[in-house]
Amino acid sequence: MGLHEFGNISVGSHAERKGAGEKEYLSFHDVFAFLRRNTLVIGAFTVAGIVLGGVYVLKTQPIYQATTRLVMDPEQGRVISQDVSSGTVIIETAEIASQVEIVKSEAIALDVIQRLDLVNDPEFADTSSLRTIVVGLLTSTVDMITGTTREDATTVSEEERLRHVMGYFLSRVTVQRVGQSYVLQIGYSSNDPQKAARTANALADAYIRNGMNERAEAAKRGATWLENRLAEIGAKARKAAITAEEFRNRNGITAVGSVSTLDQQQLSELSSQVLAAKAGTAAESAKLEILTKLILKDQATESDPEEVANNAQIQKLREDIRSARTRLEGLKSRYSDGNPAIAATQAEIDRLDAGIGAELRRIASVYRANVEVARTREKLVEEQFAAASRSGEDKNIARVELAEMESNANTYRRLYESILQQLSGTLQTLSFPSAQARVVSAATAPFGKSWPKTSIILPFSAMLGFAGGLMVAVLRNSLDRRTSSSGRLERELGIGSLGRIPVYRPEPRHNKGKPALPEPVQPLRSILDSPYSRFSEALRGVKSSLDAVMPASGSLVVGVTSVGSGEGKTTIATNLAQLYQNEGQSVLLIDADFISARLTRLAANTATELGLKPLELEEPDIPLISFPSMRRRDTAELPTPHSEMRRERDHAETPSGEASTIPVPLLTTNQTKQIAASHQRYGHLPALKEAIEKLRKQYKVVIVDMSGFENSADTRTICTYLDGVILVLGNSNKMTIERLADALALFGRSRLALLGVVANRSGVEDWFQSRFGGGGIG
User: Fold this and answer.
1) Model pTM?
2) Chain centroid to CA 150: how far?
3) DSSP string covering 494-534, please?
4) What is the DSSP letter of 441?
5) Which of 189, 477, 614, 763 makes an SS bond possible with 774, Cβ 3.0 to 4.6 Å?
6) Which residues, 6+ apart, have CB-to-CB distance to 311 below 8 Å?
7) 95 neighbors 178 (Cβ within 8 angstroms)
8) Are the C-beta atoms of residues 589 and 615 closer than 8 Å to each other?
9) Which residue, 442, 609, 421, is CA-closest to 515?
10) Alpha helix locations (H) across 89-192?
11) 470-477: long-range pairs with CB below 8 Å, 24+
C-alpha cells in the first residue's frame, strides 16, 4: 500500500487521464464482470422484451396471406430482343413492370371493392386515419362555433371513406414477378383466410377482365373506323381504274399482256442495249486508264488489268527485278559506290524495267483498239434508240399519264385489300376477345398465418430486449460516477482502498443480566460484541493494511475522517482503537470532532459500556507531560501512562470473575479545550497539535476521530498534524467522483498523506447487497 499526497491527487476526468498518456485495456474478465454486475438489468430487459413479444403475438389479430399466380401471354409487338444462343423470346422488362403496376392500380382495386362490397365489410369499417379524425374534429368545432352548415358533408364523407377503404385495400395487396418468367404472383392479406383467398382470386379475375374489356373496346373503336375507311378507299379505287381504262382507249395505246405496250417493249430493249454498250465502253476505257497509270508508275498494283496480271512474261520480268534489287542491296552493304558489280547489277535492273515497259505498251495498244470498237457499237445502238424514240414520241405523254393513272388505281386497290384484311381480324377479335393473361394456380385459403410469426417475433423481441438492457447497462456504467468501485477511485483519483466494511448486524447478547446498549450506539463496540463477524473480519483487514505502513520503531498517528457527517467514521475509529487495544498494543483515541463531539458526549454517559475511558488529568506536581508554552485555565494536565495502566489492571477482573477488556483511553474535546490558552479563540487547534506530539511518544498508535472535512476547516487543519489520514465513505453508492474530487480540492496545496479509503456500509454481506448497497452502521 502506497501513500497518496493530497497535492498529487488528479481531479480530472478519466478521459483527461487517458489523453495524458494512460491507456486502458479491456479484457474478457472485465466484460464478464460487467455482464455479471448487470445481469439483473439485462435479464429484466430481455424478459420484458420476450413478454412484450408474447403479448404482441397473443393480442395481435392474425393475418393470412393467399396468393394466386397468372401468366402473361407475350405479344410480338412487345418483344424487343431474342436470345441468339437459345432463340428464346425476351419480353421487355418495362412491360412486365407496367403490368405489375396495373394490377395494383386503383381501377382494379375499385372493381374488386365494388364486386365484393368491401366498403361495408367490418374489416374495412374503421379505416379513418389520425389526420382525418383530427381534421374532422377541428372542422366540427369550427362549424359549431361559427354556425356553418355544410351541405355536401355526406357526399364528401362517402368519397373519403371510399378513398380510405381503397388505401387500406391496396396496402394489403402484393404483386411481384416470379424470377425472370412471365408469371405474376398476386397476394392479399386479411384477417380471414377465406376472405384472403377470395380477394386474391377476385384481383386476378379483375385484371384479366379489365384487359379483355380494354382489348374489346379498342377493337370496337378500330372496327368502326376501318369500316368507314374501307368504303371511302373502295370508291376511290373504282373511280381511278375506270379513268385509266377510258384514257387508254382514247389514245389507242395497245398493251402487250398486262405489263406494257408494243412500242414500250421495243424501246425498252433498245434502251437496255444502249446501256450495255455504254457499260462496255466504260469498262474498256477504265482498263486503258489503269494500264496507262501503270506504265507511268512502272510498278505492279493491286488493280492490274487481267491481261497484265496473267501475263507470264511480265511476271517473270518482275521476279527478275526483285531478285536483282535484292542482290543490289547486298552488294551495296559490302562494297562502296562505283564498284563494277554494283554498276552491272543496276544496268540489269534498268534493262528489265525497259522490258516490262515495252510489254505494257504493247498491251495498251490492244486496249486502245478495244475502246474504239466499243465506242462504235455504242454509237450505233444510240442511233437505233433515237429512231425508235422518234417513232413513239407522240404517245409518250399519253403513256406517262396512263402509267400515273394505273399506279394510282393500283395503290387504292392495295390499300383497300389491306384495310379489308384488318377489318376481318378486328371483327374476329371483337366477337371473341382474348385475354392478355391467364390464371395458372388459383388462390386457396392458407393453413397458417403469415403474421405475426412467433418464431420471428419472440427471438427478435428477446434480442431487442437484450440490446436495450445492454444499452441501459452501458449507459448506467458510463454515467455512474459513484465511488462504490475501488477500481474507479484508483483510476481517476489515484486513491487506494484499505478495505470494505459490511453492514453491521448485531448478534444476540449471551449475558442476559447485562443491560443492552441503545441500538444506535451498538456498532461502536462491535469488535467486542462480535469478534468473528464479517464486520470484525473486514476491520481486521483494514488494520493489516495500516500495519503495512506502520514504522518498525516509533508511533503512528492516524486520522479518521469523511467527506460529510453520518458516514460511520466514529464507528470505524472506535472499533479500530478497540482492535489495537485487544491485540496488546498501546493505543490512544482522540476525539477531534469539535463540531458534534459524539465520543465526548457518549463517554460522559456510557464510557464503560463502550470500552472507553477518558484520560484523567494529573496534578501539576507529578507531571510527565507538560505544556510550558500554554496558559492553562486550571491546573489539570494529561495523565501519565503509569497511572492509567495501574487503573486498568485494577479493573481487569469483574466482580463475578469474568474476564473483561481493557478500556481504550480517550482524549475528549473538553480536555483538549481545557489545556488550550484561554485568550485564544481557536486555541484548541495548537493545543491538539502539541498534545499529539507529546502523546505519540507514549502510545504506539494514536487514532484521531475528526469531523467531515467538507464543511470543517478544523479538520483540514488537524490533518496537517497527522502521519496519515483514513477517508471513510459511508455512502459510496451516493458519493460521486466529482463531489469527492471537489471536496479533496478544499485542502489546496496541503501535503497530507492519504493512506486510503474505507468503504463503510458496502453491503458485501450478501450477493444482492454487493450490487445495490445496504443499511447503515451507527
Assistant:
1) 0.48
2) 50
3) ---EEEE-----PPPPS-SSSPPPPGGGGGGGHHHH-TTSH
4) E
5) 763
6) 359, 363
7) no
8) no
9) 609
10) 93-103, 106-116, 130-146, 153-171
11) 470/38, 470/42, 470/45, 472/41, 472/45, 473/34, 473/38, 473/41, 473/42, 476/38, 476/41, 477/34, 477/38
Mean pLDDT score of the chain: 76
Q: Which three cell numbers stand for residue 649?
A: 489492571
| Whole-Å CA distances, 450 to 40, 169, 190, 454 | 35, 17, 10, 10
Residue 261: count of CB within 10 angstroms of its CB: 19
Cα distances from 40 to residues 45, 764, 765, in angstroms, run 8, 17, 18
The residue among 333 and 494 whose pLDDT is bigger is 333
Distance CA 595, CA 705 (A): 12
Any idea of the CA torsion for 650, 656, 662, 665, to the nearest 10 degrees? -70
Most confident of 274-288, 354-368, 492-506, 536-550: 536-550
Of residues 127 and 207, more confidence is placed in: 207
Pick from 609, 618, 578: which is nearest to 705 by CA?
A: 578
Do 706 and 592 touch, CB atoms closer than 8 A? yes
Q: Would you state the cell numbers that stand for residue 621, as one nine-digit string?
A: 506536581
CA distance 4 to 755: 6
Up-side HSE of residue 468: CA atoms within 13 Å toward CB?
14
Question: H or E stretch including 475?
Answer: helix 454-479
- Closest-CA residue to 589 (of 602, 608, 576, 606): 576
Record the cell numbers describing residue 253, joined without a space: 395505246
CA–CA dist 475, 34 (Å, integer): 12
The reported pLDDT for the residue numbered 651 is 46
Task: Please report the beta strands in 722-765, taking only residues with DSSP state E, as ranges in sequence order.
Answer: 724-729, 753-759
Long-range contacts of the stretch 383-391 (C-beta < 8 A, 24+): 384/270, 384/273, 385/267, 385/270, 385/271, 385/273, 385/274, 388/263, 388/266, 388/267, 388/270, 389/267, 391/263
Give per-residue pLDDT as tens, 545-563: 888 888 877 788 999 998 8
Cα–Cα distance for residue pair 264/245, rounded to 1 Å: 18
Under 8 Å CB-to-CB from 541, ≥6 apart: which residues? 499
Would you say 300 and 318 are in contact if contact means Cβ atoms under 8 Å apart?
Answer: yes
pLDDT of 133: 57
The phi and psi torsions of 274 (rounded to 5 degrees) equal: -60, -45
The residue behind cell 394489403 is: 172
**DSSP letter for each residue of 564-613:** SSSSSHHHHHHHHHHHHHHTT--EEEEEE-TTT-HHHHHHHHHHHHHTEE
702 contact partners, CB below 8 Å, separation of at least 6: 555, 556, 557, 558, 587, 588, 590, 692, 695, 696
Q: Give the CA radius of gyration of the chain.
A: 61
Task: List Cβ neighbours of 705 (8 Å cut-off, separation of 6 or more).
Answer: 560, 569, 570, 573, 574, 589, 590, 591, 592, 593, 599
Instruction: Confirm if 667 and 691 have CB atoms less than 8 A apart.
Output: yes
Dihedral of the alpha carbons of 89, 95, 96, 97, in degrees to the nearest 10: 150
Tell me the three cell numbers of residue 566: 453520518
- Is the per-residue pLDDT at 35 higher than 80? yes
| Range with lowest mean pLDDT among 300-309, 408-417, 689-698 | 300-309
Q: How far apart are CA 222 and CA 247, in angstroms?
A: 37
C-alpha cell belonging to residue 501: 466494511
